[in-house]
């Protein structure tokens, strides 16, 4: 599934006639609609010079958490750690920001431009413990390709 999706992600990202936000929006929708265990897919980006993340394009239910301070929640922790964060069971996390009561698991993968952590892709799942290394490698690929259109 991920090999085919990679090709589709590349096609969407290469549509240079469209604004970046539109292309990212379409990537979010593609991922949410194609991967059964992806129920909310969104990008957060560092908000200017502030130590906080701001919600970018996403697919899924609207969230109140459009600004997340560095260090807070899974997303805020990834902004500081620069590492993938796979959460098989959100109930087991102390530092977690709940967006919806249906969410059981989450994965956040940082997005780098020239080695600098400038944002992340965040995925919520209503399935418990759904993420494997295949998701991590796939989302790292997506972020690498996204970073190319952002530079
Ligand atoms: N659960 C995230 C907050 C963002 S929502 O999932 C859209 C967190 O703990 O950082």
Automatic annotation (TrEMBL):
InterPro entries assigned to the protein according to its UniProt record, in alphabetical order: GAF, GAF-like_dom_sf, Phosphatase_reg/MetRdx
Pfam families membership: GAF_2
Family label: Belongs to the free Met sulfoxide reductase family.
A GO term from the CC aspect: cytosol
Gene3D superfamilies tied to this protein: 3.30.450.40
Coiled coil regions in record: none
GO MF annotations, alphabetized: L-methionine-(R)-S-oxide reductase activity
Protein name per Swiss-Prot or TrEMBL: GAF domain-containing protein
Residue intervals of the GAF domain: 24-142
